[in-house]
From TrEMBL:
It comes from the Bacteria. The keyword Zinc does not apply. SUPFAM superfamilies: Pectin lyase-like. This is Parallel beta-helix repeat protein. The keyword Signal applies. Residues 1-22 form the signal peptide. Residues 70-216 form the Right handed beta helix domain. NCBIfam families: beta_helix_1. Coiled coil: none annotated. It comes from Sphingorhabdus rigui.
Length: 401
């Protein structure tokens, strides 16, 4: 066989074993946008970019993506808008179930369910997105704005979420997480890390929510034992929106006016934040106080460290049972930091902030706060070794540069 023929055969073989060259699939708003956009997400192959033009995409149903290594990008969160006001079903706006996906530069408005959800999607990037319920805080809004769950390597960068009836930015049952440079406004929970391992939440703004930043661990889930969470460099102020979560949701119990709330997690660090103008308290550390049957679940928080935060006013209107009475006994104001005291001295948080801090002295995790024996918490003289920073894979960082 001559050399020219050998080269032809070799090229044909490579075409069979190598994926097709990456391409851009352009989609514009207008008539048939629902079908054309969903068809683009189905037709995309690994490496492809689905590029959304500027304009308002009026959609009647949710969208889904299950192809690995796809980028979905618009022209910016103020000009490329996926409008779900006419959505017929109750599901999320966009559901992603594939790995190595990048979502950036578009908005999702008024989805009936969650705004953007990813499940089992490793190495996912949310960048410069806006998710908003434009009618303001209503119990009928979708539960979550940005909602990755059951994933490894989650990067949420420069997103804006408003109006979620549960959590604006939520990461659940995941590990290796970074939430940064983002803004959460008028949600029940601004930012929530739940049942997750190894998370950095930094340089965000959480304001006008019911609770600014929540770190929870709940029972009866496949992944429990949340730990190694750092909350730092954030502005967490004026979280005074009355709780509008539907009854029965766990966040329906978050008191209006909560800055940071840690529940049943371990190894949580809260430092270098600006926290204030929160009517209940700036930082709350509590156990899970509801009935549960899971013998593997630990309801108590432990190894919580708090230092170098800048506090302003807090505690003038505590919104939990017994809080008003305790505040009155302390001169009319609840302290900037409090711990429920359940579990005893071995669970005492390390506090170095120079503000009033209180232990409620609960003898039993299920006790009523009105039965507690409050006592001041002394400032610690040392703190544990710092947790390591969370590092994202370089390909994820490169995707947003």
């Amino acid at each position: 066989m001559r050399i020219r023929e050998l080269l032809f055969v070799g090229a044909a073989f490579c075409a069979l074993v190598q994926p097709a060259s990456a391409k851009t699939i352009a989609v514009s708003p207008g008539e048939g946008a629902q079908e054309r956009l969903q068809e683009a997400l189905i037709a995309a192959e690994p490496g492809d970019v689905v590029e959304l033009a500027a304009g308002r995409f009026k959609l009647s149903d949710g969208l889904s993506l299950d192809v690995n290594k796809v980028t979905v990008k618009g022209q910016g969160g103020s000009v490329t808008i996926l409008d779900f006001s006419g959505q017929q079903g109750a599901g999320e706006g966009l559901l992603v179930t594939s790995d190595d996906v990048v979502l950036k530069d578009f908005a999702v408005e008024n989805s009936k369910g969650d705004g953007i959800k990813s499940k089992g999607a490793d190495r996912i990037v949310y960048h410069k997105l806006r998710v908003e319920w434009t009618g303001g805080p209503l119990a009928t809004n979708g539960a979550y704005g940005i909602y990755p769950v059951e994933s490894k390597d989650v990067l949420i960068d420069s997103v804006f979420v408003r109006g979620a009836s549960d959590a604006g930015i939520y990461v659940g049952q995941s590990r290796n997480i970074v939430v940064r440079h983002s803004t959460a406004v008028e949600n029940v929970a601004g930012i929530e890390i739940e049942n997750s391992f190894d998370a950095d939440v930094h340089d965000n703004i959480a304001t006008r929510n019911t609770g600014g930043v929540l770190v929870f661990d709940l029972p009866n889930l496949p992944q429990m034992g949340g730990h190694n969470v750092r909350i730092f460099g954030n502005i967490i102020v004026n979280n005074m929106t009355p709780n509008f979560a539907p009854k029965g949701n766990i966040v329906a119990n978050v008191p209006t006016g909560t800055g940071v709330m840690v529940m049943a997690n371990r190894r949580v660090e809260i430092f270098d934040n600006v926290i204030g103008e929160n009517g209940t308290t700036n930082i709350m550390i509590v156990g899970y106080r509801f009935p549960f049957q899971d013998p593997k679940y630990d309801p108590l928080p432990r190894e919580v460290s708090i230092w170098d935060n800048q506090h302003s006013r807090a505690g003038w209107d505590p919104k939990f049972r017994g809080g008003t009475e305790i505040a009155a006994a302390m001169g009319g104001s609840f302290p900037a930091i409090f711990w429920d005291g359940a579990g005893g001295s071995e669970y005492t948080p390390v506090i170095q902030d120079d503000v009033p801090a209180l232990s409620l002295g609960l003898k039993d995790i299920a006790a009523d706060t009105a039965m507690a024996q409050p006592a001041p918490l002394a400032r610690a003289t040392s703190r544990p070794a710092r947790l390591p920073a969370i590092i994202m894979p370089e390909a994820m960082e490169a995707a947003i540069r």
